[in-house]
């Protein structure tokens, strides 16, 4: 029996906790990637298996991620120190393209709203609005399930409660207080009632196998969303190479920090399990030092 049939995801995840100190969402992605690798390759002491997987699955910035996953799996699985070292030394380590290192753009709220208003499809505008107001990842918005957008009353006013099932099955609850945006979201839902389990994933006409159905639908729909975002930015004359769907989340994090200047609040609103992940958002933007520079320069 091959190791792939004996692979214990829980034991591997425990290893990632103890040795790698990875967040819950990262552990989930590592396990999924290893399971995919094991479904394709049996020779786990053969470097060709690992490098073929990296070549076939490593695309652009994800190539370095796949390398890291396989390196951790070799460290976890291969007991012989010499074999382990030889495999790791021979792993293809992709170079990160220079354009990936480019600084991300932080747009003002007015610019973001202009982009959203110039998106062609109503569904994409609704997804972008939810991202902008809550900082939720695009993929998590796409996977919002039917019945998980719930109108409620809070302090005598209408709110929308949205239950998010994020990466690694992490649960998060966000609220939309702006009544105009509530009406936009509800109007979209009313006009697009169908048999799908998800509000924002369109069913393709051709039948898909059940195992990979959600993943294939998600990828197809995400590409359309991303393309619509870029076209809207192009119309407005905004550099569309420095702003992507995840930058809604970065801009949201920057607004949260500007308002509260509290890492704990930022961690809660971004739904990070590990505070180190939250600190990376601050370090990338430099926002944790902005007040110190202001005070120093004002004397």
Describe the fold and architecture:
The protein has 299 residues and is mainly alpha-helical. It has 2 domains: 98 residues, DNA polymerase, domain 1, CATH 1.10.150; 140 residues, Intergrase catalytic core (hpI Integrase, Chain A, Orthogonal Bundle), CATH 1.10.443.10. The chain has 14 helices and 3 strands. A 3-stranded antiparallel beta sheet has the order 1-2-3. A hairpin with a 5-residue loop joins strand 2 and strand 3. The longest helix is centred in the last third of the chain and has 24 residues. It starts with 8 loop residues before the first helix and ends with a helix.
| E-strand count | 3
Q: Helix/strand-derived class? A: mainly alpha
Helix content: 55-70%
Major sheet strand order: 1-2-3
The number of domains is 2
User: CATH fold name of the largest domain, please?
Assistant: hpI Integrase, Chain A
What's the shape? globular
CATH-assigned homologous superfamily of the largest domain: Intergrase catalytic core
